[in-house]
Amino acid sequence: MLCQHVCQFGQKLLRRRPLGPKQGAESHLARCLNTLDLVALGVGSTLGAGVYILAGEVAKDKAGPAIIICFLVAALSSVLSGLCYAEFGARVPGSGSAYLYSYVTVGQLCAFITGWNLILSYVIGAASVARAWSSAFDDLTGNQVSRVLQGSFSLQAPHVLATHLDFFALGLVLLLTGLLVLGASESALVTKIFTGVNVLVLSFIILSGFIKGDLHHWQLTEEDYKLAMSASNDTSSLGPLGSGGFMPFGFEGILHGAATCFYAFIGFDCIATTGEEARDPQRSIPLSIIISLFICFLAYFGVSAALTLMMPYYQIHPGSPLPQAFLYVGWAPARYTVAAGTLCALSSSLLGTMFPMPRVIYAMADDGLLFRGLARIHPCTHTPMMATIVSGTFAAFMAFLFELSDLVDLMSIGTLLAYSLVVFSVLVLRYQPDQNLSKNEKTEMEIIERKPAPQASSLKSVPEAGTVQALWSLCNPVNTTPTLKSGHIAYGCALLLALLLTILCLILAQWPSHLFSGDPVYITGCVLLLLLIIGLTFIIWRQPQNPTPFHFKVPALPVLPLVSIFTNVYLMMQMTSGTWARFGVWMVIGFAIYFGYGIRHSLEISDEQPPASSSQTLDKNIPGAELA
């Protein structure tokens, strides 16, 4: 009896949503967004203040002029995850982004973990951008606003609360919350305006850099550094020279810089939350993700090239690199253009961060994993009204009170975890049989695959025939289309690969000195680890893929998703222990909600139970799709 209860409990945790668009009812959200709207949303969310600040920080201390290579490497790494999001956008055009993708693949518990961390990421991201907008506006006024607020509304709680109450950040988040409630098309229009101005300003910066730039700044020597030191009254403002030239900090600097630049491309996943509001989601979502990442790469690449051409990298001011660069070349009035672009970039980034937040909450509440009241749709604006108000108020409260610098890494953990699960889901789903097959067709496929392969029968005379035949059957499946058995094999190998890649990332992140010191124990262990990874990858590669056509498919399976998982997990391993401790606290709160409410109110039911229905949800009569 106990075993039966444990099995039933485990089955609840692994319940899955049906793969593909839901049937039987239309979405209550308005389908009003075209491809241009989605591109503006993706570019606006991704191309935030980082393009005005991050390039200066990385160029001065980590990469020098080779920062353009850093952005190229970071863009390629982001594209790995972006391609997987694009395929899922074509497969499952629904709200929820990575939450929904995890739900149809790895089950309910992992889906809740993904959605819960996406909520955390979006809330912290929105509050952080609101604080940055307030700070940028304060700089334009000569810090007059902060002086008044610190004098009248100061807070005495270091490392917990901010130095003062930020009324500007509070008002901005509440204002945009009201805009999001008005409708998706209105929000998209404002986003297009802010993003358009931002792109124009960045184009001006790039052209200015190529006009006023000097190629000698990509070929600096120690003599140039000495001249700068002798001409500068404050030598502490000069950064490290490195070895000079185009790559002053070598390949190590490029890798460190690329790891930092990777976070500049976070944000494109907001496009995937528009599956129920896009007019043609199966086409526009994949296309918008690819176009957005390409535009963002061109912007980051161009701005970093212009910056390092306009002035020597060791003289770049990390806090305000572009205004200082225009002062250096004698174009001081251009700093006002940069300031306008910064505010527009922050505004579009804030809208892009706040837009997906209620969509994820709505999707989870619509499935019963969060409180059902959060799934209420406004009858006139067709927006998730309650989810928008609750999430916007929470983000405004965070921006109003808290110091968020210590919490920003939590946003990265949540995002990278979501990326990894989406990539894993694509890897698994491609090798699963068509869920539309009838039971008779699946039974016939099982009978066929039980027949021994003719090549393997000749091996029975060998003493190790059982092992050899098993390996042969793994690498040489009988069917040319996925079956339940091949799906099991791909799923099991993918799980093992995810574990092995995590171990490898842990070794590279925590004990790199032992690995590169020539220690035979570590070298032998890593070689065996790599051989296992290669072997399991080969087994997955040999399994038949689902031939169902989609508007977009990730190329180079299974290698490309595995490289993406490795990249994401390695970056997660760079987080501090304090960040992981805060992550644990957030997960404890989430598990209390899931096991106290979500697991009992989930609308995904087994075949034996009567189907549930709800006026606020799409058709729930489809049983949870089993992948294995």
Automatic annotation (TrEMBL):
<dbReference type="InterPro" id="IPR002293">
    <property type="entry name" value="AA/rel_permease1"/>
</dbReference>
<feature type="transmembrane region" description="Helical">
    <location>
        <begin position="32"/>
        <end position="54"/>
    </location>
</feature>
<feature type="transmembrane region" description="Helical">
    <location>
        <begin position="410"/>
        <end position="429"/>
    </location>
</feature>
<feature type="transmembrane region" description="Helical">
    <location>
        <begin position="66"/>
        <end position="86"/>
    </location>
</feature>
<feature type="transmembrane region" description="Helical">
    <location>
        <begin position="334"/>
        <end position="355"/>
    </location>
</feature>
<keyword id="KW-0029">Amino-acid transport</keyword>
<dbReference type="GO" id="GO:0005886">
    <property type="term" value="C:plasma membrane"/>
</dbReference>
<keyword id="KW-0813">Transport</keyword>
<keyword id="KW-0812">Transmembrane</keyword>
<feature type="transmembrane region" description="Helical">
    <location>
        <begin position="98"/>
        <end position="124"/>
    </location>
</feature>
<keyword id="KW-0472">Membrane</keyword>
<feature type="transmembrane region" description="Helical">
    <location>
        <begin position="161"/>
        <end position="182"/>
    </location>
</feature>
<dbReference type="InterPro" id="IPR029485">
    <property type="entry name" value="CAT_C"/>
</dbReference>
<feature type="transmembrane region" description="Helical">
    <location>
        <begin position="287"/>
        <end position="314"/>
    </location>
</feature>
<dbReference type="GO" id="GO:0061459">
    <property type="term" value="F:L-arginine transmembrane transporter activity"/>
</dbReference>
<keyword id="KW-0325">Glycoprotein</keyword>
<feature type="transmembrane region" description="Helical">
    <location>
        <begin position="254"/>
        <end position="275"/>
    </location>
</feature>
<dbReference type="Pfam" id="PF13906">
    <property type="entry name" value="AA_permease_C"/>
</dbReference>
<feature type="transmembrane region" description="Helical">
    <location>
        <begin position="489"/>
        <end position="509"/>
    </location>
</feature>
<comment type="similarity">
    <text>Belongs to the amino acid-polyamine-organocation (APC) superfamily. Cationic amino acid transporter (CAT) (TC 2.A.3.3) family.</text>
</comment>
<feature type="transmembrane region" description="Helical">
    <location>
        <begin position="385"/>
        <end position="404"/>
    </location>
</feature>
<keyword id="KW-1133">Transmembrane helix</keyword>
<keyword id="KW-1003">Cell membrane</keyword>
<protein>
    <recommendedName>
        <fullName>Cationic amino acid transporter C-terminal domain-containing protein</fullName>
    </recommendedName>
</protein>
<feature type="transmembrane region" description="Helical">
    <location>
        <begin position="554"/>
        <end position="573"/>
    </location>
</feature>
<feature type="transmembrane region" description="Helical">
    <location>
        <begin position="189"/>
        <end position="211"/>
    </location>
</feature>
<dbReference type="InterPro" id="IPR004755">
    <property type="entry name" value="Cat_AA_permease"/>
</dbReference>
<feature type="domain" description="Cationic amino acid transporter C-terminal">
    <location>
        <begin position="552"/>
        <end position="602"/>
    </location>
</feature>
<dbReference type="Pfam" id="PF13520">
    <property type="entry name" value="AA_permease_2"/>
</dbReference>
<feature type="region of interest" description="Disordered">
    <location>
        <begin position="607"/>
        <end position="628"/>
    </location>
</feature>
<feature type="transmembrane region" description="Helical">
    <location>
        <begin position="521"/>
        <end position="542"/>
    </location>
</feature>
<feature type="transmembrane region" description="Helical">
    <location>
        <begin position="579"/>
        <end position="597"/>
    </location>
</feature>
